[in-house]
Each structure stands twice: as structure tokens, then as C-alpha cells.
Amino acid sequence: MSKFKKKKGGDLPAISTASLPDIVFMLLFFFMVATVMRDNSTMVENVLPNATEIEKLKKDRTMFIYAGKPSEQYKNLGTEGRIQINDAFVNLDAIQPAVFEYIATLPEELKDRVVVGLKVDENTNAGIVSDVKQELREANALKIMYVTGQKKEE
Amino acid sequence: MAKRAAPEVNAGSMADIAFLLLIFFLVTTTIEKDKGILRSLPPIDDSQTEPPIIKQKNLFTILVNRDDRLLVEEEEMDIKDLRQAAIEFLDNGGGVNPEGESCDYCRGKKDPESSDHPDKAIITLKHDRETTYGRYIEVQNELVAAYNFLREREAQRIFNRSFASMLEEKEKNQFNKDEKLNANIQRIKDMYPMKLSEAEPDKS
């Protein structure tokens, strides 16, 4: 009996924190995998409208076109709605080449299923959207998605 | 028994480093949440054929003006009434389709002044160049909701399951096609084909 007591000694052993890093690393890996770094910054104001009847976007075959008012640091371009593709403001006639260029980068089986995601600011005039749609029709990229937020049901 | 075990390497600071990284990734993470309304554009048609004549009663005309107000069938309407009005129009079934069949699944009023058959019923949407995009999306959303409501109802009636779940299952097995499911989805879609035409806004 007394033998055991002696072995234990006086103070309590500290709780081992050796497994704490394991737990933290587990979380870390999760977030590392889930993280998507923003690959292009928007140069236009981009508050998306909300809708209820929405479907998921297929990321692997989607090309994005942004439109809206130039944001704060590009104020010198005026307040008229502008189109942005990849990291630059473009004119309407640059849409078709950009679409073909994107389609060329897709794997073979997705080439004819390309979707164009329109991220348009809710305060933009709808006229610019119909111009873009007309260009897309001419480029024969007929599937479009109006990217929206999820509206809360009342 | 004074002999002690070899002291462990102090791993306490490892947690600190990991936390630092963790917090960095927590802050930079944006879980992807891109969703939206999927629509197909009509292909460009440069043939010179005469467009078919469509009876006025089979057209449901929506105009959105530059002040974001709606004119539906020549009456001003609030956005919240649009869905119901579109459902009533599509589901009217007052006549026969091009094959001469009457709509036996429609539950509308069978008003002879409204659409003949969901096959023939066309919604046209025209907006002004200065309409805001937010309002345009709201209108689109209400119209898609009207179609979804009717398709959902028929899917429940015929297959006793929701149309959304059928689409989801199709999506899940997109590389090994389930012919029966696809046929069922197509059958529902054909009952209420989405005929939504958009007119070019006037150049001003």
C-alpha cells in the first residue's frame, strides 16, 4: 500500500496537451482544403440580387462575367455600368473572344455544356444585361445563370 | 526509486503554431455559395420564315418600365401578385393543344378568354433599358417559381415525390444515366413547358 503512495508523489501530473496539436491540425487541414482564395478581385460594385428559385452552379464549367458600376477606386471611369471579365473592364465586342477562349480551356466532355454566370449588381440597368445576352447568343453560349443570393422566405 | 522517465519534448508550442495557421485559414475561407437562376437563351435564328401567329389570349404580357413598375396584361400589378397570376394563366387549360387534346391535368378556371393549353401558353417579358437588374431578377424569379409550382404539383400527383428530388437524383448520377428517371422528368417538363420569351428592350 505504502509503496504505491510513494510512487505517486506529491503533486498531480499535468494533463497531457500532446494531442491538442493533433486536433488543431485536423481543423487546420479542413479549412485548408475548404479554402478558395479569391482569384480575381471585382472592379465593379457587386451586390447580387436575391431569389428563391435557385439551383447550384456547376463550378467546373462556368465562366463569370461581372457587371456593375465601377467601384470606388475606379471612379474616374464614371458611373455607367461596365462589364468586367477576368481582371479587366471590357467592351461588348470582347465578350465573344473571351467565351471562346474559356471554352478552349475546358476538358472535351464539358465543352458543349458551358455555363456563363452573370454576376450583375442589382442596381445596374438591365439594358447592359440584354446586350451581354445578345453577345452570348452570337457566341452560341446559350446556357446562362443569373448568379443570385438566397432570399429568406418570409 | 528516484529514477525518472526521460522528459518529453515540450510540444506545447506546437499548438500555438497550429492555432496561428488555423486562424489564418479561418479568416480567409469563403465557403463557395454560388447559386442562381439557370436559363437558356434562344439560339439565333436568321431564317426568314414568318413567325407563327399567336392568339392574344395565349400570351401573358409583362412590361417592366424604367421606374420598376409592372404592367401585366395591361393592368398595373404588384410583384407579389405576379406568381399567382402566372400560375392561373398557365394552368387555365381553356382549350386544346396543337394535337387537339384538352388539358386534363389543369386545375385552372377553364376560362375561354385565357390560355388554351400549357403547351400554347407563352409568357413574354419586356423591360426597359433603365429597369434595374434587381427588379428584373425578381420578375424572373416569380415566373420560374410559377413553373416550378405547377411541375411540383404534377410530380406529387403522378410520381408521389417532389420534382426537386427527382432533379437532384438525376444530378447525382449524371454519368450513369437512369433512363426511366429522365423520362419521368421530361414528362413533367413537357406538361408545363417553359415558354418564356424575352423581347429586346427598345433602343432609346
From TrEMBL, chain A:
It is found in: Cell membrane. The keyword DNA repair does not apply. GO terms for molecular function: transmembrane transporter activity. The chain crosses the membrane at residues 12-37. It is a single-pass membrane protein; Single-pass type II membrane protein. GO terms for cellular component: plasma membrane. Belongs to the ExbD/TolR family. This is Biopolymer transport protein ExbD. It comes from Winogradskyella jejuensis. The lineage of its organism: Bacteria, Pseudomonadati, Bacteroidota, Flavobacteriia, Flavobacteriales.
Automatic annotation (TrEMBL), chain B:
PANTHER family: BIOPOLYMER TRANSPORT PROTEIN EXBD-RELATED (PTHR30558:SF3), EXBD MEMBRANE COMPONENT OF PMF-DRIVEN MACROMOLECULE IMPORT SYSTEM (PTHR30558). Keywords: Cell membrane, Membrane, Protein transport, Transmembrane, Transmembrane helix, Transport. This is Biopolymer transport protein ExbD. One of its GO terms (molecular function) is transmembrane transporter activity. It is found in: Cell membrane. One of its GO terms (biological process) is protein transport. Belongs to the ExbD/TolR family. The keyword Transcription does not apply. Pfam families: ExbD.
